[in-house]
Amino acid sequence: MSNNPVQDLLWSRGSGPNRREFLGRMFNGFGGLALTGLLAREARAASASIDPLAPKTPPFPRKAKNCIMLFMCGGVSQMDSFEYKPKLNEFHGKRIPHIPKIASGELQGRLTFAHQCVGSPFKFQQFGQSGRYISELFPNLARHVDDLAFIHGIQVDNQNHGPATLHVTTGSQFPGSPSVGSWVQYGLGSANQNLPGYVVIQDPRGAPTNGAAVWSNGYLPAAYQGTFLRPSGTPIVDLDRPTGVTAAQQRQEFDALAWLNRRHLGGAGNDSELEARISAYELAFRMQTAAPELVDLSGETEETKTLYGLNDPKTAGFGRQCLLARRLVERGVRHTLLLHGVQIGKDSWDDHGNVKDGMIKHSREVDLPVAGLLADLKQRGLLDETLVVWASEMGRTSFVNGSISDKVGRDHNGHALCMWMAGGDVKGGATAGATDDFSLCAADEPIHIRDVHGTLLNLLGLDEENLTYHYAGRIRRLTDIQGNLLKQIIA
């Protein structure tokens, strides 16, 4: 063996491949590098670190090291899930007696027209020491109610699906901003050198509203974009080794490529883009072993599979997503985004036409898997170091304009989103915010989504005021103009 990996590679091939063959082999497996969070071809992070994903020490001491975000696409009906509002049934079919002063925009306008209040068709019951009311639709999740902290009356700036989804997942209703997971990875780096630091697992039936923009890196370096994990086949696109190339051969080719890159780097001086590319290829090589092992569930016990509902076709889809999320936490993946629901239709939570049947269907698909995830994390001692977040893009209305039909639905309401958090330093059983008697909007001071984002970052040890990035002449951050910390839900 010589000190020249390129020469060694050519000798090992006899006459060796020509230049076109060499480059073709090198880029066939990783060239598309749809390892979106790995390539970092524009990785010019402000940090002096060569590896943009190197682990970083957060400024605040917090238990949670990882985050799992459960995003329910379409707008979950808060008064049919986690908000018990007996006044709705009392006034069912009647006009809501008063319009809250805090109601504004489209919500206020629609309330001035003829409308009828719509009660919940579901029973509520108190659970746990906290005595929180939970809908009969979530019997499994209800058993964990004392681990959950609820946030009520969250406001988003737009109640159309596209902008609202972006607002909750990126902090802005306009395309082009980094997702929550990108900010988390930017602030904390990655704790696993063999897997991406930010992984996305969408509903096996299809993509959410806005598609990949939901997990985009936006204006942050490309290293911080979410990596999409496919529901079947090769876990990550273009990860497979080219046909006919052994691991030893590919290792030799990567050594040759790294040698050439570092030789160029020596003459080019400090080049964070090239350094990031070298690191990305090395990570991609290691992932060829780590990623297939990650999605292989054959080693999980039947008891665990049943816990997540993998033995039931109705829960198996989201159950697999939740089980993979636990496996990602075990492997140190910093942020995992799980998406339930497809675009806008019968498989999303957008129940305009028939909220009763819709909520029965959607909750049936997620209740057991989410409860299984919480139970599994807890029994493995992982819940303390994992922040679990339940979210959607908006709440729903408690009335309909006109008359109530047999299969009444609920419309959009950007003033009454309900979320919950669990794990880490979350104060289980606590509450932040509240809505009025008719679940129209905040009962007092509204909680903006930026407040939730700031609290989420804080629970991971990050300072939302100082987690910034300079772009287009502005200092940018997830919370934009700063969020208020929801101290009520922090232990």
Question: Explain this structure to me?
Answer:
With 491 residues, this protein is α/β, with parallel strands linked by helices. It has one domain: Alkaline Phosphatase, subunit A (3-Layer(aba) Sandwich), CATH 3.40.720. 34% of the residues lie in helices and 14% in strands. The protein is built from 14 helices and 17 strands. The strands form five sheets. Strands 1, 5, 6, 7, 8, 9, 13, 14 and 15 form a nine-stranded mixed β-sheet that branches. A two-stranded antiparallel sheet has the order 2-11. Strand 16 (469-471) and strand 17 form a beta hairpin. The chain is globular and about 85 Å long. 49% of the residues are buried.
Can you summarize this structure?
The chain is an alpha/beta fold. It contains 14 helices and 17 strands.
